[in-house]
Each structure stands twice: as C-alpha cells, then as structure tokens.
Amino acid sequence: MPTKQVTAYPYTSGYPGLLWNYHEHKKAELLGLTVDNQSIAEQTVKLYDGFDTDASKTGAAGATQAAEYLKLSGVTSGLIRLQLTVPAGETQKLGDEDCKGIEFLGRGTAVASTLTSDCVIIAQYRLK
C-alpha cells in the first residue's frame, strides 16, 4: 500500500499537494487519510481527482457540467472526491471504512483553504 505525505496549499500558491500521479488504465482507491492541521486557523481540505476530458466526449453541445469542471490550476476536471474541515491544531484520521468507495481516475491532489496552511496530508491508496 503506497503512502504519500504532502503539505496542502491553495491553488493560488502554485504549489498543489500532489498525492499521486495519473496511472493509465488504473484507478486509485483511497484507503486511509490523515490531516494534521498545524495552522492557527481552521482548514478545509479538498481532495481533487485530476484528469483530462477528451473534447469529443464532453456532451452533445460540447458543454461540461459547471459544478464539476472547475478548471483550477493543475486540476482539469475539478472533481472533488473528498472534503474535510479540520479545526486549528487538530488531527483527523479516516480509516478504511471512512474511505470506502472513494476512487480517483487521475491525479490525487490535496488543496487547503488558506495560503499559509501548515496542513500536512498523509494518504494511503491502492492502484487497481
């Protein structure tokens, strides 16, 4: 089971917290997550599923769903697979039961709500 640790920042910082890269013909299944908020402020952490959509498959009119297609820097799809709010100075852990069924088609990216997040993310995942 691969494990990755990153510090999550907002996309305006230009430093997204890449948990894992896209793997052709495989999905990544989230098995566990630890969010250690070392900041003095509450943090909302979002895990994005970053993948590109072929323009020929975006729909009859070529439009995409605005709620899912955020076009954030480095996250073309903008699909949020998990969102978690952690109070200042606290750590929250999600185990196998909490993460059951959360799958990523592309890159797993962690994004925090403030620029000076001091928010450490540790993710366990499996490629399948």
How helical, in percent, are the residues?
under 10%
**Termini Cα gap:** 11 Å
Structural class: mainly beta
The share of residues in extended strands comes to 35-45%
Low-pLDDT sequence parts: 60-75
Number of helices: 1
Query: Please, what is the average pLDDT?
Result: 76
**Structural Rg:** 15 Å
Description:
With 128 residues, the chain is mainly beta. The protein has one domain (3-54, 66-127): Jelly Rolls (Sandwich). 3% of the residues lie in helices and 44% in strands. The chain has one helix and nine strands, in the order ββββββαβββ. The protein has one helix at residues 96-99, and strands spanning 3-8, 17-20, 28-37, 43-50, 79-86, 91-94, 103-104, 107-111, 119-127. The strands form two sheets. Strands 1, 3, 6, 7 and 9 form a five-stranded antiparallel sheet that branches. A four-stranded antiparallel sheet has the order 2-8-4-5, with no helix packed on it. The chain is globular and about 40 Å long. It starts with a strand and ends with a strand.
Secondary structure: elements and pairs:
Elements: E1 3-8, E2 17-20, E3 28-37, E4 43-50, E5 79-86, E6 91-94, H1 96-99, E7 103-104, E8 107-111, E9 119-127
Antiparallel strand pairs: 1-9, 2-8, 3-6, 3-7, 3-9, 4-5, 4-8
